[in-house]
Automatic annotation (TrEMBL):
Pfam families reported for this sequence: GGDEF, MASE1, PAS, PAS_4
Organism whose genome encodes this protein: Pseudogulbenkiania ferrooxidans 2002
Subcellular location: Cell membrane
UniProt cross-references to SUPFAM superfamilies, sorted A to Z: Nucleotide cyclase, PYP-like sensor domain (PAS domain)
Name of the featured protein: Diguanylate cyclase with PAS/PAC sensor
Length: 753
């Protein structure tokens, strides 16, 4: 019966298992002991008592230790019922109800955020609700078991159910709070008041003995004696806390129950049911009085602590304020000041407390003028009856004049009498000086802005123009009047090629607050002509709270043209416009990498014009240059746009082809077809200075795959193939790599044309 698999709790470790067993035995023992004590005073049969304290023990154990100890509740209930001669069937069924009831109470208290310290009035209500709700199961299960087995007749079932439910509920209210709140700290608190506790116990026993034992009862006239015990319960709650209040309620209830059971006391009436109801009401009242008083004390303590904490925070805040703060009463006497206020008037200790401005001016001549101004402004604030702002001045010990911005707030009583005046004085001397300096710098910066040779304009967070200097107006062709407050019509950098909002540095700066320098831009003038510019974007404000940006730009048209000319001279042949040797080497490096990735051959065609020197010698170099330009044009037209055509110097040209396939021989044959196409194109007649002329090329071919060859090796092999073509009679094509393959295969070394 100790299996707890129905409840998803983690298994305890070895060090916890012994403690769990000890707790379980303690729970069973306490349940059985208190149950036997309760059954000693049965009310209906041998199973229903006036007060059933074991339910309070069970609920307290479940709340403090967890629902895993349900088996101890069940076992204790089973043993108690067996001890009075109940059958196994009756004992088992009653034990089941006695277990489910406390479990239901535990579950409900967990769901309702119950504090077992009873430090809120809400916790008292939740505990009563949980006790009454859970015991519905206990009473229903127990009475049903007794009725079904014939131990309780049907005519007594309703009264038995009510008695069972009230007895179990009162048992929880009496035993539960004591067991839930008792702790080392509560025991120490009681120990500190042990003398008072001893006196209380003696007085309580005497009063309770007189009210519940010596009193013969048998009439409602004895009931007023019960009220003598209520001050004792209040005494215990106020002085000994929730544990003492619970102990008082339990002790007084036990004496009242014992007296009633033995025919004594005010609750032993001729009408048994009426007396029983009064007894239960008395016990519940004792418990609620104690718990509510201690809860109110706890809430009052928390409220007092919060007020004290708030006062301390407010005092610390006032003391930490850089402004001088005063609080004056209705007569103008100083009641509260902070450090800056005391330093302002050079006051030490508490010599400021209770003085007035007039008294300060009389005692300190250097403050006489200021004190007069303060009194005048105070009266104006009282007359206005609302927050007022004043300007006041004070000279320090060195004769320097300080300006103060003073706020005064009058406070009135409900009947209109003056209650107090809050004064907050801030030294604004440096602020005013800084403001004047800012205005001076602003004027100077405005002059610099107007005289600057660079274009400068400002935009707000919606990209609307806020200002534009004369240089920008001249470069863009707009006037300030027609643009201020509008989104500028010119384009911002990168928007020409990329319309994404984050592609524009102006919008990027507005988004993240970071400056951007050296951004390339393209501006459109009013007449539609554009020009390149270099700009800097600077944020105005702080990141996250920008108010706009300032854009500074320069027209870099001439610089761009110079850069383009330098690039052309560095990488292109000035005569033909073809790539030169430097650019060819760069593209060969790229082609090697691409060939390695794609596992595809590329090729270099080395082209030399036959008898070109003779042309230069006979017709002149200017005619030779015309021929070179025409040859360059035909070479470009003979190959694909992605292929590279370069001039190395004189009449030497190179054509680089890519993506010729992965196999050597097919790639070689494809290259030779292109070479033949080039040879045919260059064999066509030329017209040089009005005279027809024929020229033929010799072409050498060298293939590459990845980086198996260096650039120098590749060009050298193409040159060797070119030499073989010339040796074969010119106007021919030779492939270095196919020749090498043939030489390795047959030893003949026959070139393929």
């Amino acid at each position: 019966m100790s299996n707890t698999a129905s409840f998803p709790f983690p298994a305890p470790g070895p060090s916890e298992r012994g403690q769990a067993v000890l707790r379980l035995l303690l729970l069973v023992g306490a349940y059985v002991g208190s149950g036997r004590l309760g059954l000693a005073i049965p009310y209906i049969g041998s199973n229903i008592t006036l007060v059933w304290l074991p339910t309070g023990i069970a609920v307290a154990a479940l709340v403090r230790w967890g629902a895993r100890y349900w088996s101890g509740v069940w076992l204790g209930a089973l043993l108690v019922n067996l001890s009075i001669g109940s059958s196994w069937l009756v004992a088992g069924s009653i034990s089941l109800g006695n277990t489910l009831g406390p479990l239901a109470t535990w579950w409900l208290l967990q769901r309702l955020d119950f504090h077992r310290t009873f430090d809120r009035q809400k916790d008292v209500a939740l505990f009563v609700l949980g006790a009454g709700s859970g015991m519905l199961l206990t009473a229903s299960g127990g009475v049903a078991s007794l009725w079904l087995t014939g131990l309780v007749p049907a005519e007594l079932a309703r009264r038995a159910w009510l008695t069972w439910w009230l007895g179990d509920t009162v048992g929880i209210l009496l035993a539960g709070p004591l067991l839930l709140t008792i702790s080392r700290s509560s025991r120490q608190s009681l120990s500190c008041r042990r003398s008072e506790l001893a006196v209380w116990c003696l007085v309580t026993l005497l009063v309770a003995w007189g009210a519940f034992i010596l009193n013969a009862g048998q009439g409602t006239g004895a009931l007023p004696l019960v009220f003598l015990t209520l001050p004792l319960a209040v005494w215990a709650a106020l002085r000994f806390g929730v544990t003492g209040a619970s102990l008082a309620a339990l002790l007084l209830s036990a004496i009242a129950t014992w007296g009633t059971a033995h025919g004594r006391g005010p609750f032993f009436l001729n009408d048994v049911h009426q007396g029983l109801m009064l007894l239960w009401a008395f016990m519940v009242a004792l418990v609620l009085i104690g718990l509510l008083i201690t809860a109110l004390q706890a809430e009052g303590g928390r409220a007092e602590a919060e007020i004290k904490s708030s006062q301390e925070r407010l005092s610390s805040l006032i003391e930490a304020m850089p402004d001088a703060i005063f609080f004056k009463d209705g007569a103008g006497r100083w009641l509260i000041t902070n450090g800056p206020a005391r330093r302002l008037f050079q006051l030490q200790g508490n010599e400021w407390l209770g003085i007035t401005d007039a008294a300060l001016g009389a005692a300190r001549p250097e403050f006489d003028e200021l004190s007069s101004a303060c009194q005048r402004d105070d009266e104006l604030a009282w007359q206005a009856g609302k927050l007022c702002l004043f300007e006041e001045q004070l000279r320090d010990a060195e004769g320097r004049l300080h300006q103060f911005e003073v706020r005064k707030v009058p406070i009135f009583e409900s009947d209109g009498r003056r209650k107090g005046l809050i004064v907050i004085s801030r030294d604004v001397t440096e602020e005013r000086n800084a403001q004047r300096e800012i205005e001076r710098l602003s004027q100077r910066n405005e002059l610099l802005l107007m005289a600057a040779g660079e274009g400068i304009y400002g935009l707000d967070e919606q990209e609307r123009l806020t200002f534009i200097n004369p240089a920008a107006q001249r470069m863009l062709g707009y006037s300030a009047d027609e643009l201020i407050g509008q989104v500028p019509p010119w384009r911002h950098p990168e928007q020409v090629a990329d319309d994404r909002p984050n592609a524009c540095p102006v919008r990027q700066t507005l988004a993240d607050g970071l400056p951007r320098r050296g951004c390339e831009a393209w501006f459109l003038r009013r007449d539609g002509r554009g020009f390149p510019a270099m700009l800097t974007v600077s944020p105005i404000g702080e990141p996250g709270r920008l108010s706009g940006v300032v854009v500074t730009f320069q027209d870099v048209t001439e610089r761009k043209q110079a850069e383009a000319e330098i690039h052309r001279l560095a990488f292109y042949d000035p005569l033909t416009g073809l790539a030169n040797r430097r650019l060819l080497h760069d593209r060969l490096a790229q082609a090697f990498a691409k060939s390695a990735r794609q596992r595809s051959h590329g090729v270099v065609l080395f082209i030399d014009l036959d008898h070109f020197k003779a042309l230069n010698d006979t017709l002149g170099h200017d005619v030779g240059d015309v021929l070179l330009v025409e040859v360059a044009r035909r070479l470009v037209e003979a190959v694909r746009e992605e292929d590279t055509v370069a001039r190395l110097g004189g009449d030497e040209f190179v054509v680089m082809l890519e993506r010729l396939g992965g196999e050597l021989l097919p790639a070689a044959f494809q290259a030779e077809r292109v070479a033949e196409k080039i040879r045919t194109a260059l064999n066509q007649p030329y017209v040089l200075k009005g005279q027809p002329y024929r020229s033929s090329p010799s072409i050498g071919i060298s293939l590459f795959l990845g980086e198996q060859k260096t650039r120098d090796e590749l060009l050298k092999h193409a040159d060797i193939a070119l030499y073989r073509a010339k040796k074969a009679g010119r106007n021919t094509v030779r492939c270095y790599d196919v020749t090498a393959v043939a030489e390795r295969g047959s030893g003949a070394g026959q070139p393929i044309a």
